[in-house]
Design brief:
4 helices, 82% helix
């Protein structure tokens, strides 16, 4: 779950960071820093550091804050494309959490079966192995 969510957040940080450049140097930008730029840079920075906190339960909620920040940045930029991209990344984050849980459960079951098989192989080997002098 953490791997998929981390990948989504890192890719989102790249897109939101580029949108911050558009807010400064784009057709509607004035070449200076405004509220939109601050929101977008803050969202991009938060998207970069959030994967480090995904080992805690509250880190996933921090990821949702990033999603809201991307949507707010899209509204402030008054550019429909960033709003759509923010919505798409929100869906990606949702599905990365949802499908990541399934993947984690399948991996845990596989590792448990492998550990059980490994322990039974060890006991069988130990009983049939000749003694070491």
């Amino acid at each position: 779950m953490r791997t998929l969510a981390s990948a989504t957040l890192i890719f989102e940080s790249i897109i939101v960071g580029l949108a911050a450049l558009v807010s400064v140097f784009g057709p509607n930008g004035n070449g200076g820093v405004n509220a939109t730029t601050i929101v977008l840079i803050g969202t991009a920075a938060l998207a970069v550091i959030t994967p480090a906190f995904l080992r805690h339960q509250w880190g996933f909620y921090l990821g949702w804050v990033v999603q809201v920040g991307a949507l707010v940045g899209g509204l402030l930029l008054q550019n429909g494309s960033l709003l759509i991209v923010g919505f798409v990344f929100g869906l990606l984050y949702f599905f990365s959490l949802r499908l990541g849980r399934r993947g984690d459960a399948a991996r845990a079951a596989y590792l448990a079966a492998a550990a059980e098989g490994e322990s039974s192989d060890t006991t069988e080997q130990g009983s049939t192995a000749p003694p070491v002098d």
